[in-house]
Amino acid sequence: MSQDQAASLRVLSQLRRVEATPQPRPQIADLLDRMTPRWDTIVSRARLGTRPRDLHDVEELAQRFADDLVAAFRGASARRPSAAPLAISEDGTKAMF
Predict the structure, then answer these.
(1) Which of 30-44, 61-75, 79-93 is predicted with the least confidence, judged by mean pLDDT?
(2) How many CB atoms lie within 10 A of CB 30?
């Protein structure tokens, strides 16, 4: 298991613990802060990648990062949105498409 996959699993397990509480998720900023080093890694690898294979690997890292970013706001069971929602509930847990 790569470091990025392990980091994704840690973020998801933290999100599951946060979801169990009925109050709003005040720890979103903490989760985002923990993702910052991964983002820095993605950016630095994109700057170094000159071969298509390198850029493909960076894209996969970025997509996993994007999934974790969405999960930080919508919960661990969230999926990547396919279109912008028409409306979002005040607590951010439901969207109308």
Answers:
(1) 79-93
(2) 13
Q: Tell me what the mean pLDDT of segment 35-40 comes to.
A: 92
How far is the C-alpha of 42 from the C-alpha of 36, rounded, in Å?
10
Listed in sequence order, the residues at least 6 apart from 61 whose beta carbon sits closer than 8 Å to its beta carbon are 4, 38, 41, 42, 45
CA Rg value for the chain: 15
Angle at CA of residue 84, ends 73 and 86, nearest 5°? 100
pTM tops 0.85, yes or no? no
d(CA 10, CA 8): 5
User: How far, in Å, CA of 85 to CA of 92, rounded?
Assistant: 11
